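Continuing from the previous page of notes. For each protein in this section, the sequence appears first, followed by its structure tokens. Read the first protein now.
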Amino acid sequence: MSESRTAGTTIWDTASGEIVTRFDDSMTGAIAWHPQDDLIATASELAIHLARPDGEVLWTLGGHVPSDSLRSRIVRDLAFSPDGDQLASLSTDGTVRLWTVAAGTCSTAQVLRISSGTPMALTYMQGGAQIAVAVQGRGTEVWDARTGERVATLEDCSQDAVGIAASGRGRVIVGIAEEARLQSASPDSECEPGVESGIPVPEFLAAGPGGRIAVSGGESGRVELWGAGLANHERVDLPESIPDLGVPGELGRTTWGPDGTLFAVTRWWGVIVWDGQEWSPLEMP
């Protein structure tokens, strides 16, 4: 909650699990690291900060539509292109805004306007040349990251797309909420039949080393780890309780470290780490 004294951005040392620094910036939405580790993008309901790792805000970005009495809107996802020259911000207002971040400058670029449905998540693919967007009520759309033009609409896939991650070889893995299912798809071929997921709403997908995909969401207390191509998977449950920490609460977003370590967010434990054998919590704010 924004009135909490710990609301904002926290940075940990992943080797020791200790907190490095905290920013009281009230940015409690999406977050993304720049590929060169010299910028952090953080979001609130409307605004986006581009800051240094020490908390110095270099740019504040806007343009997304605020909430009104009928509809709540939020900047739900952020992603840097693989080369770091572009930032994409996705809002449930129906737009994806592109920002050019290069040579110490930041400027506006194209605005991708989703024709219908609610954009839920995005990922860069094809080496950063394209952006794939999961749209609830529409399916999956693919856009040219340079021109801002729509390349394809994958209407053969289920229209209840809520999560997405690039899987390599020009393909994406899409999380389908209506059927708790995962599908592999590409702009130039039909969607594959897909596989069932034990995650009720597979809204958070994270691509890791070797094409592995972590899937979480839907207020679930577990994460699924899928092999490349969705060939096999394992289910990793959270422990029921840890002394001095209590119950974890539901598991939210996940991300992979370069060495294959999985980091995840839980409601009451903060950031926790899966090393392939057990969960361990990082220092609490």
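Done with the first. The second protein uses the same format. Note its length before scrolling.
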Amino acid sequence: MSRVLFPNIGAYQQEWLGVGDGHQLYLEQSGNPNGIPVIYLHGGPGGGSSKNHRRYFDPEKYRIILFDQRGCGRSKPSPSLHQNTPNHLINDMEAIRKHLKISQWLVTGGSWGTTLALLYGIAHPERVLAFILRGIFLGTAAEYDWLYTQDGAAGFFPEYYREFIEQCADIQCASTLQGYYDLLTGDNEIAAIAASKAWCLWELRLSTIEHHNIEPHHITDAHQALCMAKISSYYFVNNCFIDEGFILTAIEKIKAIPGIILHGRYDMVCQMRYADKLVKAWPNAQLQILPKAGHGGFETQTIDGFCKAADTMASFIAERGS
């Protein structure tokens, strides 16, 4: 029987945590204050957390921690590129952990959240009980090329890609990715808003195989779109500020930590091959291929897989602790 999300619950604590550099992180907790600490890392970069992310986890078993990464969502200021790199985000996670007086936690996330989770684990393996990662993204040049050149996902969605590159048609730039970054960080606010909606529309159209005919009017939150597009393009033109191939090279640091990897067979944002490469290099990770899922975090099989993985990890962590 397929699992559905746990019932909608409210947060029992919400706050803004100062982490330096002028940044304040939106931070919330829900579920059982005495449960297994779990942190969920949202996608993007720049995507922001959702109340539905709480619903992957049994609220009786888990102390559920969500936050908006610096510069986006409800964090302040947003959107902001100031002092915004993976190292800053890793330090922010450590600031959250210490603030909440947690010694170890289950680290989970989706899409870009998997990248950040892996980077955090490599930097602080002693703080990680286990991982649940959905839609692997390793931050390599081939992955950017797949998304933003005509030789990748554009081959499956040529009409949508033509719409996507129209935003950059009138500017001189080395690549579509660079063109978007220039528009999104330029002085023309109207052009930046239009570019942010086009950026999010392209990714949204690639993200799901359960929903069709996604049009510009479906991008309803202009602030969220601007955060997502501006921060993502900034990260991607800078190769996510990580060396090519770094995660696979450094995976030795977390090889003893168990992980469940969920990946949609038809994920057109993050290709399956990178999840496969990851588990080949990480003997304690188990790859679960979702045969009728794409990239979206709330497709039917993805919800089923994530909720079951969270229950499996709750049992594993409880048994290991007893």
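What the second structure shows: The beta strands are 13-20, 23-31, 36-41, 62-67, 105-110, 128-134, 259-264, 285-290. The CA atoms of residues 143 and 223 lie 26 Å apart. We return to this in next week's lecture.
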